[in-house]
Amino acid sequence: MSYPVRTEIVSGSKTFHIVAVATSIVSLFYLFWRLFSGTVSPAIPIISGFYFFSECVLILNLFFFFALFWTRIRRIPTPLDEFDPPLAADRLPTLDIFVSTLNEPLEIVQRTVLAATQVNYPKHTTYVLDDGARKELEQWVQARQKQGDPIKYIARKKIPGMPDYAKAGNLNHALFQAGTSGEFIFLLDADHVCKANFAQILLPYFYNFDSATQDYSLNRVAYVQAPDRSWTNLEGNTLADDTRLFHGPQQQANDYLGAVWCTGSAVLLRREALAEIGGFYQATVTEDVPTGFILHSRGWESRFHSDPITCGMPPVNFTAMLRQRQRWTEGDLQQYIRLFPKIIWRLNWKQRLNYTIGPVSMVCRLFFIFALIFLPWLAIIQGKWVMALKPLDLVVCLAPFVILTRVVRILAFRPVSPRVFYLSEQFYWCTSASFGLGIFRVLFTSKKVKFWVSPKSKSAPQSFPNLTHLTGILFLTPLIYAVWTYLHSLKTYTSHFGLIWPAITLAWFLNALFCCWPLIYFSLFKARVCDDYFNDSIKDQETSASWINWVLLPTSFAPVVTALAGLWVLIKIALDQ
Asked: Looking at the domain that runs over 91-315, which CATH code has it been given?
């Protein structure tokens, strides 16, 4: 006898709990120290005060982070063809595979479709949803049909002047108006090649086993989301693999809270659930997350499968990646404005917590951008310190806070390697400008936010100047501020203080250089997709860091260097006395 799915707690939770509690205590002590120790500079009270308020907001976000990652689960399915007792052949559900496309290169779409037609499952049909209505693609599908492939072509008619709702409209047309009838629907983007056994792996999530009757029955699961993994990376950079933290530890935490985020590809959905809510949500530029949100509000459940079952390609250059993240930000904010107030109260408390973390994180990131990008410039202009520190304060109060907040995040994301975690800091910096632009476009412009598809061609243009270069210029601020702090400290402090401040600023300078390196690199050189994607052999490969990332990686330990520098100065003072 075998159960369809086993659930286990991800190992390492106890260590994370201990460090999280310690970090919470240190964080509260840090805020108390900042408030009453005079570190809020009286010379520039507005700037320094706002910086302190930003720290309060970021610590609030830290507490939400602890709540989200307190428990993570991993689900292990029994493949459908290994059920014991087996599921009768006449009870196997029908499966439709939707490959949505809009003017992507034909060879990319063909590769995805061919892989979908080879799925190891008896009752499946692949549908090419061509929103570009290309004759050559239709003819290719017809040729494959004659060779016996279970494949069909669908292209909807768009009415000029009427909204077509982009990808959501394309999916809904196939769902309700194109004659598809599969009980389950698997979504693939045009560049995502699926593994042949994905149906055997994902379908068990929709079944319960009754030991009394020795029979299987469908449960209330609406969709199963699998990781979205890339097999190629931007040349000389690892940011293309930045979603590994989300499509892994974070989704496992979401799964425990009963609110796995639907991300629109590599997801298996139940037609009955989609029909109940009227199909995919069409009022935002991203249809995936809001659709999952609505399904949860109707009492449907979700699951996360931890192992990748598809391989796709990232945007072809760095500017395209920034624009993609901007669209995601716009879609998330539209969801929070239009859906959040209406249906958040229909969720259980765990799901409310999960979906509340999203808007809270958005607010915190805005404070982060303002505090670390604009405030240093104001401090430089006025020639004043944002924070007034003494060596003892640094060692006792600031260093433990910074170090523990970093360590606890590494523990939360295990078993992802620390290298990937530190590279995610680069991603956080690199996408902050596009994040801010997305917020601005939704809140403060009357121009309608439109859906656009990330380019997949090797020859996709990258204009100059573009968002990459503007982002790089903006986020050189930490480097400039570190240099200014270093020079200012040499003029301001003498004796032992003259020893510590150059060490501190040098450490933070290197850390800022580590975070900003991809921006500098892509501002100087054109980024393109590695040729691996276009070769005949396809495999899910680990992205490798460029040599400069390996060189700069130790600089991410700048807080540790800072703490040691402060401790060394204190020892020297004691020895001199």
From this structure: 3.90.550.10
